[in-house]
Structures are given as structure tokens and as C-alpha cells.
Design a protein that fits this description.
35% of the residues lie in helices and 22% in strands. It is an alpha/beta fold and 94 residues long. Keywords: Transferase.
Length: 94
């Protein structure tokens, strides 16, 4: 399995994506997953469509993409966090 490219996106690519990015990086290390995490603005997704393996975001995504899109608001609220983590791990291990 090659290295996965993980996009973490929020509106500005700064605040909430940092919280999610830190948590996802920790998960990647804990589970020995070969992946690079890229923190971006939601508007920048188009530049990564051909190279990304998964999008993890705290915003509403209007478009369809050729990779899994995972809602990560649970990292901010705590509600459904374990389910979100399992969804991320599944996407990264597939």
C-alpha cells in the first residue's frame, strides 16, 4: 500500500482544521498508517482532486469527489467521535 494523501479542510484552513489535523496525525502514528496530512482551505480542494485519497472536513461539502469525504465536526463537539475515528481509519486502511 502506498502513502495516502489526507486532506483536512475547514473554511479558512486554520482553526478547526488544526484541531482535526492534530488528532488525525496522532491516529496515523498510533496505527502505523503510511499517510501525509495536508491542512487546506475548503476552497482549495479542487487543486488536490487528482492526488487525494480522503477528505476530512468540518464544513459542508457541496460537490462529489472521487475519494471518501468524512464529516469531522465530532472532533469539535465530541458527539460521535469514536464512529468518526473508525470511519477515518477504514478509509485510510482501504
Amino acid at each position: 500500500m502506498g502513502k495516502k494523501k489526507v486532506l483536512i479542510a475547514c473554511g479558512a484552513g486554520i482553526a478547526t482544521s488544526t484541531v482535526v489535523s492534530n488528532a488525525v496525525e496522532e491516529m496515523i502514528k498510533e496505527h502505523n498508517i503510511n499517510a501525509d496530512v495536508h491542512q487546506i482551505k475548503i476552497a482549495e480542494i479542487g487543486a488536490h482532486v487528482d492526488t487525494a485519497d480522503v477528505l476530512i472536513t468540518t464544513t459542508i461539502v457541496q460537490n462529489d469527489y472521487p475519494f471518501p469525504v468524512i464529516n469531522a465536526r465530532s472532533f469539535l463537539t465530541g458527539i460521535g467521535l469514536e464512529e468518526t475515528k473508525q470511519e477515518i481509519l477504514k478509509a485510510l486502511k482501504d
